[in-house]
Amino acid sequence: MSGGGDDGRGVHVKSSGRDSATLAGARVVVNAGPTYEDIDPVRFLGNRSSGKMGFAIAEAASLAGAEVTLVAGPVALATPAKVVLRVDVRSALQMRDAVLEAVRGADIFIATAAVADWRVAEYSSHKIKKGTRGARALELVENPDILAEVAALDPRPFVVGFAAETERVAERARKKLERKKLDMLVANLVDEHVGIGADDNAVELFWPGGSEALPRASKLEIANALVARIAGRFRAGRHA
Ligand code: CTP
User: Fold this and answer.
1) pTM of this prediction?
2) Which residues, at least 6 apart from 168, have a Cβ–Cβ distance to it below 8 Å?
């Protein structure tokens, strides 16, 4: 697409000069934070995701003019001022339902959430006592891949996935981009200073036919840069 105006999906996107990265009128869904998979009334399986990156992206997209729905796992974060709707969930299955509902008619889905890969096969409605038969070997079942499910929708939004990688970043990122049929993948470089739970992030973006590294910066700065890149690729059209 060139020039401003309707992009054929009923979205008005500005596209000239300094406004080239804005998301005016676009409907964006962001999921963020961990999911908690309950084992019994007092225990759960979780992870160390803080949700900060996803909330920063939701804020940056809102400031770029998007109408943002934020689907949040259990996090201790205030809703960014301009976010239109926040849906709080706990488990991967709840997050999946909320995301599938929110992406109906959406233009862009940004999957920053650290969705638990597994949940317990059977939730115990009473507290599991020490010494109970089976308590030492929890049976786990795989959770659905929310990102892959959204990417398989028809019609589907522009889909951006995240991946935490510590090594062979480009090779793994390219494989994930293809396997999950994503429009863009953000590889999160994880070490003791950046990534999960930290205030800073260093990422590398991959899309079919290109990549770009964004050096270490605060999650807010990274979020702004990411939203600008996502807006650019979205506008250019996923088949460009
Ligand atoms: N994701 C998802 N649903 C899941 C698991 C992951 O939507 N059940 C999404 C995450 O939100 C993220 C991306 O998929 O956008 C992460 O992909 P994944 O393949 O899980 O990558 P890693 O966590 O890096 O795991 P690994 O490479 O070990 O498979």
Assistant:
1) 0.89
2) none
Which protein residue has the closest C-alpha to ligand 1 atom 17? 163
- 103 lies in a domain? yes
| pLDDT one-digit tens code per residue, 144-155 | 999 999 999 999
Domain of residue 92, CATH code: 3.40.50.10300
pLDDT tens, position by position, 117-135: 999 999 999 999 988 766 6
Number of separate domains in the chain: 1
Query: Is ligand 1 within 6 A of the CB of residue 147?
Result: yes
For ligand 1, mutation pick of 110, 147, 185 (most atoms within 8 Å of CB): 147
Please list the ranges in the chain whose pLDDT falls under 70: 1-21, 133-135, 191-198, 238-240
**pLDDT computed for residue 240 by the predictor:** 44
In a domain, 130, yes or no: no
Residue 127 lies in a domain: no
Is residue 129 situated within a structural domain? no
Q: How far apart are CA 73 and CA 37, in angstroms?
A: 11
Full residue range of the structural domain in which residue 101 is found: 4-10+20-119+141-238
Is any atom of ligand 1 closer than 6 Å to the C-beta of 213? no
